[in-house]
Design goal:
Distance between the termini: 30 Å
Structural class: alpha+beta
CATH topology: Peptide Deformylase
CATH superfamily: Peptide deformylase
Bound molecules: cobalt (II) ion
Oligomer: single chain
CATH architecture: Alpha-Beta Complex
Strand content: 25-35%
Largest sheet: 5 strands, antiparallel
Shape: globular
Number of strands: 8
Length: 164
């Protein structure tokens, strides 16, 4: 595996609408593993392909390190061509982003979602998520449409407001 360079806000790749993944092969799986390694090394809970300069619809999420409840403990998800097909409720919560170092802000997200995606082994999957996992998935999917959380957040501050 290898660490990838994380693109920072202001890089045009972060503003692109990403293209669907067409071929799921060893090369893509290696790329997903590299994304995951980069995310863990930076203590992130999610990372999207455009954040490492590749404009395709793929992201990796793992909220297990930052989650207090047992509900979301299934750990790492590799989401290829993900689409949110159901949303319920709404919740304001703090977010940060590996592409916006040291910035935090509150973002309104659906509390519960259903997401359909293709797995790293080319299987159609459905995932129901709520709370932090749902928030993280919505944040990463925004990246695939060229959106950053700082464009929609309220009360943006330098540094975390609520240290855990
Ligand atoms: Co982000």
């Amino acid at each position: 595996m290898a660490l990838l360079e994380i693109k920072k806000a202001g890089d045009p790749v972060l503003k692109e609408i990403c293209k669907p993944v067409e071929k799921i092969d060893k090369r893509l799986r290696k790329f997903l593993d590299d994304m995951a390694e980069t995310m863990y090394a930076s203590e992130g809970v999610g990372i999207a392909a455009p954040q490492v300069g590749v404009s395709i619809r793929a992201c990796v999420v793992d909220v297990s390190a930052r989650n207090n409840s047992d509900a979301d403990k299934k750990s790492r998800y590799d989401l290829i061509n993900p689409v949110i097909t159901y949303r319920e409720g709404s919740e304001l919560g703090e977010e940060g982003c590996l592409s916006c170092p040291d910035l935090f802000g509150d973002v309104e997200r659906a509390q519960k979602i259903r997401v359909e995606y293709i797995s790293r082994f080319n299987k159609k999957k459905t995932l129901e998520a709520e709370g932090l996992l749902a928030r993280c998935i919505q944040h990463e999917l925004d990246h695939l449409d060229g959106k950053l959380f700082i464009d929609i957040a309220q009360n943006i501050t330098k540094g975390r407001k609520n240290k855990d």
